[in-house]
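Issue 218. Parser rejects a valid record. Input:
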Amino acid sequence: MMGDSMLTLYFAKDKKKIFVYGGVLAVVVLFISACIGFFLTQPVSSVPGKPVVITVKTGMTSDRIAELLYQQGVIRSVKVFQTVARMHGMESSLQAGDYAFTQDMPVAKIVDMLSTGETSYLQITIPEGYTIDQIAQLLSEKSYGNAAKFKEAARKYAPYDYMAPQQSEVYVAEGYAFPDTYSIGIDFNEEKLLSTMVAHFNEKVTPEIRQMAEAKGLSVRQLIILASLVEKEAKFAKDRPIIAGVFLNRLKQGMPLQSCATIQYILGYPKAELSVKDTELESPYNTYQHAGLPPGPIANPGMAAIQAVINSTPTEYLYFVADKNGEHHFSKTYEEHLAWIDKVSN
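Output the parser choked on:
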């Protein structure tokens, strides 16, 4: 028969084992719970997807909103959303309105939007120098719109006299879709975005700018065509007004502009080094083969490029070439130009 001391020892060991096992189990449970909680508060997807618009009416509860979001695939868990909402005191600060959510939004962001009344205006930034094709691709990539519909609208949209369609133009609206940050509302469509961008251009190119262009002998169309060339040619701000001056000099002397950017526009992509064959492509936009300006702008220039043409540097330069860093070197004679080409090529 086992003594009392021996029984006590066994019981003590069992209690210690239970305590140890219990502690390990608690840590495992907490870890698993934390992982599940973290997973459920994360975005449904790493990409935005098409925006989902939810209408929040006055008096609608957070529970009802959670159900709508879950049904639309914007959140992973109704209960997690409810918990985060209560932590943020959303019931007391909920604002009615139309909200646009995407699948890459974490729960905390969605709750914050509902609490602050950040309604359904998504933003899209159009970089300076983007072409109509690039803008259309950006809309498609962000799932904000249909690329084909935007391009189709740009082929014919010309609400202002200076946009009057010209023979051989690819897009009538090219050059006049002003690059900026735009808000996209619940009533968004491709035609409306284009009309907003073009109207914004008409405001940015003020009567004063138009008068300054006229003083240089340039119409609004000619100004924007030149600005689009400058936008695509210049990498550094300091080069823009000089490049504009070179183009103006070449136009005055009846020389072809020989802009590589126009060949890239024909090709449809920014080819780093053009071949002689590229410069022989048959197109009205080929400024190696045709003197004067191309039929229309080759991009949508920003205000800096427009101002560079307006305030072009008076110069005797007729040539320029970019080095490997994108910095331009200017020459007065063709012999000097060839020397610079040799330098930047080595």
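Fixed in the parser; the record now loads. Residues 4-41 form the longest helix (38 residues).
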